[in-house]
Each structure stands twice: as C-alpha cells, then as structure tokens.
Amino acid sequence: MSVLDHIARCNTHDMAAYTPFIVDGRTVGHIRRRNMARLEGFADVFTLNADSVGLVDGLNSYEDRTVAVGRVLRSLADDGVITGWRDEAYPVGGQWGGPYVFEIERAAAAFLGCRAYGVHVNGFVRDGNDVKLWIATRADDRPVCPGQLDNMIAGGQPVGLTLKGNVIKEAGEEAGVPEHLARAAIPVGAITYTMENDLGLKPDMMFCWDLELPADFQPVNTDGEVAEFRLLPAARALEIVEDTDDFKFNCNLVVIDFCIRHGVMPPEHPDYEVILKGLRS
C-alpha cells in the first residue's frame, strides 16, 4: 500500500465504457453504455444514439428538466437500480458555478455520471511545532464505507446552500462545532478525481477546508454518522494512509493534501510531483 495506490484507486475508470450526456451543447455527464437500455422506456425524456445521450426537445427550462429527469430516476430507484435515495438535490451543469441545467437526486449522480461536489473539513490542533488532526470513525450503519476512518467533517454539497453555509451545517451535525468556531474554517482548495462504482461514473470535486480548533475542544457527533473521534498527530494519520486501507477511499486524498500543505509530507518525498498532480486529476 502507498499514497499512489490511493490516488490510483480514485482515478480508475474506462471512458470507452461511457457515452456523453449532453444538454444545451455541453457535456454534463457520462452514462455507462450498458445502462442506456434502462432509459429506452423514457423516450419522452431522453434521446439516445450511439454517440451521445440528450434530452428531448421541449425540455428547455431548469424546472421542467428537473421534474422530467427526476421522474425517470425515481422509477429507476423503485426498480432497485438506484439505491440509497436521500432526498438531497445536486446541481447538474458540467462545472462548478454553473450555469446549471437542472438538478438531480444525490444518489443518482453516478448513474448519469454527473460531477458531484462536497466539503471536507480538516479539524486540527497545534501542539507546539506539531499538528494534530481530529479523525472520525464512520458509524457501522453508514451505507458507504461503514466503520472506516474519515475526515472530522464532510458532506455532500446540495442545491441551496453556499459552501461556507454547508461547512457550518455539517460541522454542527457531525462534530458539534458551534457556529462561531465553524465560521473560522478557511477554504484551501479542492481535490478532483474520477472513479467508477457499481452504478456508474464519479467525477467528484471535494472542496477542502482547514479549521484550527482550541486545544480543549472535543468534537461530539449529533447525527449518528460518526462512532467516535480521535486526535492523532498528522504524521500518524499519514502513516495510516500510507500503510492501510483504513480511511474511506476519498478521505485518504484529503489527508494527503493536508500533510503536503502543512509540511508533514515534504517536497523531498520521491513521489511528490506525481502526488500533487494526482490530487487534481
């Protein structure tokens, strides 16, 4: 196991297996070719050909597209194709900031191969010259990566919330961070990767934030998603990444990024340049 193994895992995909999903002349997703047959019964919503998938003429507004595509996705969920429905809307547009063309249920993002966004917050404490990270352990009933290690705070980025607003919300729900502390979180960039899962393609973007916390602060989970929190030296967290699969797959990348920015992983690392490029593939 190595840092590069985790980066490779999050960037393993075969684009030849996917067809572009094009709306308003822009590619907003990629649909697995073998999944296209599931859309054939919805000719009033989707147009299908060998080179692309689109939406029928007449679905021109954000609202009409959202309703029509949502009806299809709900039907696929009822058939068991899409699982883990959350009633959480994600924007679809091809790039962060839009313009967005419609919105979809979070659980369906990979089926359409649409970019999904999230926030990951590194809660950390300074101890002299050392830096320590608060590391969460995911609850055993989580649908994705139960029992694995996680960043202190993380969550998907839904429609209707600013990034900072989402950080504040997730900080309160996942770690009991009061708003006045959460507002001190600093945006420090984003990590991108494209990987496949059972449903389709995940071209995800994670916005990373650093939140320096008082030495006496103790995170407490309030939404049942975290089993426990541990305060670990950042160097120890990096060792866990380098030696194990204990962290949730994409959280490895957030820890690596933090350790680079805080000097825990120095430029003398033999794979430094490859790692830097791999975090923003």
Quick overview of this protein structure:
It is built from 8 helices and 13 strands.
Task: Describe what you observe in this structure.
The protein folds into two domains: about 5-10 and about 115-280, Alpha-Beta Complex (Nucleoside Triphosphate Pyrophosphohydrolase), CATH 3.90.79.10; about 15-110, Transcription Regulator spoIIAA (2-Layer Sandwich). The protein has eight helices and 13 strands. It has helices spanning about 5-10, 60-80, 110, 165-175, 180, 235-245, 250-260, 270-280; strands at about 20-25, 25-30, 45-50, 55, 90, 100-105, 115-125, 130-140, 150, 155, 185-195, 200-210, 225-235. The strands form four sheets. Strands 7, 8, 9, 10, 11, 12 and 13 form a seven-stranded mixed β-sheet that branches. Strands 1-2 form a two-stranded antiparallel ribbon. Strands 3-4 form a two-stranded antiparallel ribbon. α6 packs across α7. The longest helix is centred in the N-terminal third of the chain and has 17 residues, at about 60-80. The chain is globular, with a radius of gyration of 20 Å.
